UniProtKB/TrEMBL annotation:
Residue ranges of domain CN hydrolase in the record: 96-366
Protein name: Beta-ureidopropionase
Signal peptide limits: none
Record keywords, A-Z: Hydrolase
Lineage: superkingdom: Eukaryota
CDD domains: ML_beta-AS
Enzyme class (EC, first level): hydrolase
Database matches in InterPro entries: Aliph_Amidase/BUP (IPR050345), C-N_Hydrolase (IPR003010), C-N_Hydrolase_sf (IPR036526)
Provenance organism: Eucalyptus globulus
Molecular-function annotations in GO: beta-ureidopropionase activity
Family membership: Belongs to the carbon-nitrogen hydrolase superfamily. BUP family.
Length: 414
């Protein structure tokens, strides 16, 4: 046996998989495990990885033929699942159908900006049509969905993609929201023309009648790796709003906010039942955390979480650096998709593809939120007065940590 040749072939195959964004040639971890494990073994591994919903394996939902046809014609991944809740005596089920869209850009980043934006509009439209055909009530798109995630470059010309809250992209989605009686979460780069044309990273909430319900601006701005976003916009000023829609109370924790547990907590305290996390993040930096943070937030705060990440590798005309010692490069890295839903009972859906556009649909009974609050008592057993006290103390210039030292320890000077 030519082990050298076989080893080289495996290395080349692995390298090719990294380049195309797959997992050893598979679209997702779920697909890799499903195709390589015996059914009974896969079922047990799946139970450990994504949990059970109310003690049962997550149910797959059949999709409309028209939605599947759009998926095939336009080449995007489409999956659908159902989160159930226990039957109650005094309350009817509150089932809402929710969708997430992940996508890559269409044109090279050297193309005219308006052409780039409108090409993305036309790419996403069939996925929204598929969501409409599937009866989706609430739909969320990815962070800054109308543009390449160009903030890594620190070039100010990308600010041209910024739009007013009621700009072209919002109007494009308003028509579709009204057509499909659908609430749409529209994460854009916002230009606030009434306040010095300030730029913000914003999610616009469009109601099912095509009206604008409100907006939320990103609370936490990263300063790590190539996430040079603070060159363009700063921390938001809208607090932690929850939007009461025709289908439930929703909130938006934009991208980097998922790394901050208190950010998740605040949306829960304001009564959110579903929190969306539209993101743009790359594998080398964040992928090990991706399935953990949202699931933990859903558990700790007794609400559903919808996590969305874009796909593909975006290359820019001018190489850039970020002061982290790495050589100059022209791309941010691979956006690994893997959009998914997490439920308050610790179950979650399989993820969408790591390298293809996709629509993920899920039915969720919002009664599960209160049922898990009753079961685990996280709200009841929380000690908010203690947390409020330590935070109030921490904000004071004279704050000293509450550390009780062993009197026999030798004092160290730092």
């Amino acid at each position: 046996m030519d082990t050298t040749h076989n080893g080289q072939a495996k290395e080349e195959a692995a390298a090719a998989a990294v380049r195309d964004g797959s997992v050893c040639g598979y679209e997702s971890l779920d697909r890799l495990l499903r195709d390589n494990l015996r059914p009974e073994v896969f079922q047990e591994v799946s139970r450990l990885l994504i949990g059970l919903n109310c003690g049962r394996t997550l149910e797959v939902v059949p999709l409309a033929d028209s939605a599947k046809a759009l998926s095939s014609e336009c080449d995007f991944d489409i999956q659908a699942f159902h989160f159930t809740a226990d039957k109650e005596v005094l309350r009817e089920p509150r089932v809402v159908r929710v969708g997430l869209i992940q996508n890559s850009i269409v044109l090279p980043t050297t193309a005219p900006f308006l052409d780039q934006k409108r090409a993305i509009h036309q790419k996403v439209k069939p996925m929204i049509d598929a969501a409409g055909a599937s009866g989706v009530n609430i739909l969320c798109l990815q962070e800054a969905w109308t543009m390449p995630f160009a903030f890594c470059t620190r070039e100010k010309r990308w600010c041209e993609f910024a739009e007013p809250v009621d700009g072209e992209s919002t109007r494009f989605l308003q028509d579709l929201a009204k057509k499909y009686n659908m609430v749409i979460v529209n994460p854009i780069l916002e230009r606030d023309v009434n306040h010095g044309e300030t730029i913000w990273n914003t999610a616009v909430i469009i109601g099912n009648h095509g009206n604008i319900i409100g907006k939320h601006r990103k609370n936490h701005i990263p300063r790590v790796g190539d996430f040079n976003e603070s060159t363009y916009y700063m921390e938001g000023n809208t607090g932690h709003p929850v939007f009461e829609t025709a289908y439930g109370k929703i909130a938006v924790n934009i991208c980097y906010g998922r790394h901050h547990p208190l950010n998740w907590l605040a949306f829960g305290l304001n009564g959110a039942e579903i929190v969306f996390n539209p993101s743009a993040t790359v594998g080398e930096l964040s992928e090990p955390m991706w399935p953990i943070e949202a699931r933990n937030a859903a558990i700790a705060n007794s609400y559903f979480v919808g996590s969305i990440n874009r796909v593909g590798t975006e290359t820019f005309p001018n190489p850039f650096t970020s002061g982290d010692g790495k050589p100059q490069h022209a791309d941010f890295g691979h956006f690994y998709g893997s959009s998914h839903f997490s439920a308050p009972d610790a179950s979650c859906t399989p993820s969408l593809s790591r390298h293809r556009d996709g629509l993920l649909v899920s039915d969720m009974d919002l009664n599960l939120c209160r049922q898990l609050k009753d079961k685990w008592g996280f709200r009841m057993t929380a000690r908010y007065e203690l947390y409020a006290d330590i935070l109030a103390q921490y904000l004071k210039p004279e704050f000293e940590p509450q550390v009780i030292s062993d009197p026999l320890l030798q004092k160290k000077s730092y």
